[in-house]
Amino acid sequence: MKFSKRIIPLSLVALCTCAGLSWGADAPATPRPFGPTISAFGPAGTGFPVGKLGVLLNYQYCETDGIRKGSNEVNENDELSKNVGVVKLRYGITEGLDVRTATPLYDVYKKNNVTGAGEHLGWIGDTAIALHNVLMNQSKGALFDLAVDVGLVVPTTDVNSKSVDFVGNAAWGTGGAVGLTYSTGSHRLDQEIHVYTFTEGSHSYRKPTYIRSTTAWGYAMNEYFDMGAESQFDWNASSEKDGKSQNDSKNEWYAGPKVAFKYKPCGFAAGLAAMFPFARWYEANTPSEGYRIELKLSKTFDLL
User: According to the 3-state scheme, what is the secondary structure of the chain?
Assistant: First the structure.
């Protein structure tokens, strides 16, 4: 895709530019990097401060680059442009235990390139709620931070003719996650894996069970700026309609560079990542994204 060929070098130039601007700035001896930028509900290994409320927004913009089956493009009959936001809340209950929520908001423009017809789909998806418990803490002498999640998906979507069943169809779900974080000097590595499965919801549709693996590396160039890279692999089983498999399983692996800005005095951070496909496989004809632009905004409030 022409846009993908242009944006990869532009992203790398932007990354190097931010690095160049920050190398000459005054910085503490060991600045710490911000966490993962891309939208993932898993825990990584760290906790959340007691009595603090975190409000986060993940935003993703992406465009499909054709209809694919297996690992090959079969046609360009349909084109999708996606604006997906995930509103997240986090609150520290006690040391090592916090609660997290994530609610997706989305708008998808679907265009038929054969007829020229187009339509907008979407609004709100189903909300995930999870308890997050830290089992090992690197700052207290452990080799790394280790945490687990236990989660529930509750039906908060508005099911109508414009909603997308894959994002939300008023179904219940349950799942869990494990996350690991390792920090050394100004480097931070995060690895998280989570799995969720769902009941049948509206339109007699059952969303596929999925496993997501998110890997992130961040390097704090100084007190304010980070650089790094992130990777996300998704495995989706087949969905079901009227109790029958739709034979539409898929695997996707996206990765790319990121930058982040932090301002600790007001508890604010922002991250930007550009993600590109490294491996894609689809059991059925499926629109596939040629790139993803990811933005994360985070603000922490002290409630105590």
Answer: CHHHHHHHHHHHHHHHHHHHHHHCCCCCCCCCCCCCCCCCCCCCCCCCCECEEEEEEEEEEEEEEEEEEECEEEECCEEEEEEEEEEEEEEEEECCEEEEEEEEEEEEEEEECCCCCEEEECCECCEEEEEEEEEECHHHCCCCEEEEEEEEEECCCCCCCCCCCCCCCCCCEEEEEEEEEEEECCEEEEEEEEEEEECECHHHEECCCEEEEEEEEEEECCCCEEEEEEEEEEEECCCEECCEECCCCEEEEEEEEEEEEEEHHHCEEEEEEEEEEEEEEEEEEEEEEEEEEEEEEEEEEECC
pLDDT digits (tens, 9 = 90+) for 191-223: 999 999 999 999 999 999 999 999 999 999 999
pLDDT tens per residue across span 89-136: 999 999 999 999 999 999 999 999 999 899 999 889 999 999 999 999
For the chain, the domains span 2-25+40-302
CATH class of 2-25+40-302: mainly beta
